Amino acid sequence: MKELERSLLGTILKAEMNDGCNALLNEAKEAGITSDFFLAHDTRSMWEAMCELDSKGVILGTMSLFTDISKGKKGLEPQGVWSIHDNGLSELHFLNLVNDMVENYRTRNLSRLSMGINDQLREGKDSEEILTSIEKQCNTINSLVPAKDTLETIVDRTFEDVTGKVDLSQYLRTGIQSIDDVLYRGGYGPGQLCVLASRPGCGKTAYALNFLRNICTTGNSVLLFNLEMGSTQIMKRVLSIHSGLHMRRFEDGMAPADKMQALRDSTKVVKGWDCWIRDSVYKLDHILATARGMHRKHGVNGIIIDYCQLIKPMSKNISREQQVAEISRELKLLAKDLNVPVLLLAQVNRESEKDDRSPIMSDLRESGALEQDADSIIFLWQTMSEREQGSDYVRWTLAKQREGMGYSQGRINFNKGTQKMEDYSQFI
Questions:
Q1: CB of 19 within 8 A of CB of 60?
Q2: What whole-number distance in Å separates Cα of residue 195 and Cα of residue 378?
Q3: With the C-alpha atoms ordered 195, 200, 203, 205, is the resulting torsion angle positive or negative?
Q4: What is the fold, at CATH topology level, of the domain defined by 1-164?
């Protein structure tokens, strides 16, 4: 192991012939390597000394490192620099050395994790707490992936992106044509945190469930966290949307036989969907762990969370604004890590109702962080008169989108009996 550590450091130092020491050092750091990766005291201290020089803007090399260590830093022998240099390999081997360092570190940590599980079981810790802890540690270990990306591969990937050679199936359509038309590439895209916000009663849960249905009927899979309703309540709405039938007619025994058969047919279809519903996961760390676990096991294409203000944050002794900022940041990282869209529902404050206008981003309740982290923000709303009259539509406003079209507005037909949403233009 020590030889591997010396070879990595030596290879970095040998790159001084091309003034490349700092560049290779930073490549190693970008791959996740820190001082914790080094088991031997001298190699760990040498790594730290190199990182310190780099942070000061010093051009790294054997002489600069020798001079620095000669000042008596970290208890290292200055002559050790030349010995490390001699252990270096050709730069062609650098990525292999980095990957070997990562693999060894992951193996060590997995071994420690297994021993830690036994310790926690002996201490009598709750199984859910243990599983959450394991998930966190596994995610940390899993985030250390072998270094693969070079400038060349990044450029190639970017070229494919801008020339249209991308998999548009990764962009999940809402099923509402007017909204899909303004969303970048026709839907919610991989790695995006997408916010859908409204006042209560304007259809944000209905929007989410219509989106869920469209995901599933197009052959994709979805994970739904609903923190407000139980799974049976959710499924009633899903069946209403899919069948076009008002569930209350079945509950009160008023549905005729043909409608009952239509419901049975819809039930058979919905049973075949790749859809998972979690209605008892409230804590942010549990949501993150569950999402990562389900994605690993089932290859989930999209995640829906209903809704932001009901999530219990990981940090407690901070303001509510800071807590929502934590939620927003972690969910954005989740979307990026899993490379799937995350649709986060949220509430807006009462100010927009008072003014009888479309909500704006500053109306997002308790947080300006959502405004910053979100890749897109859509508001659903109605004027006061429309709400009082029980209008058959809600308005939508696209207030933010990082890529593609900017500010846009439109209407959605909203059947509150069946919870179905369709493009309003169909009904004009």
A1: no
A2: 6
A3: positive
A4: DNAb Helicase; Chain A (1.10.860)
Beta strand pairing call for 275-278 and 222-226: parallel
Residues of the chain with CATH 1.10.860.10: 1-164
Enclosing H/E stretch for 33: none
**Crossing angle for the helix pair 94-122 and 21-30, nearest 10 degrees?**
30
Q: How far apart are CA 392 and CA 34, in angstroms?
A: 58
Peptide bond before residue 188 is cis, with ω within 30 degrees of 0: no
**376-381 and 393-401 beta bridge pairing:** antiparallel
Q: How far apart are CA 370 and CA 363, in angstroms?
A: 11
Rounded to a whole number, what is the largest CA-CA distance in the chain? Answer: 91
Neighbouring residues of 24: CB distance < 8 A, sequence distance ≥ 6: 11, 12, 15, 91, 94
As its CATH architecture, domain 168-427 has 3-Layer(aba) Sandwich (3.40)
Among 320, 281, 323, smallest CA distance to 304 is for 281
Count CB neighbours of 350 within 10 A: 11
- For the chain, how many helices (H) and strands (E)? 18, 9
> Which DSSP symbol is given to 165?
-
Stated pTM of the model: 0.67
pLDDT tens sequence across 120-157: 777 777 766 666 666 666 666 555 555 455 566 666 76
In terms of Cα–Cα distance, which of 85, 43, 49 is closest to 68?
49
Distances (CA, A) of 374 to 8, 77, 192, 195: 39, 51, 7, 6
| Cα angle, residue 286 at apex, residues 283 and 291 outer, rounded to 5° | 125
Per-residue CA distances from 407 to 23, 161, 397, 410, 417 (Å) = 41, 24, 7, 11, 30
- Residue ranges matching CATH 3.40.50.300 in the chain: 168-427
Q: pLDDT tens-digit profile of 182-228?
A: 999 999 999 999 999 998 888 999 999 999 999 999 999 999 999 88
Which residues 6+ apart lie within 8 Å of 55 measured at CB? none
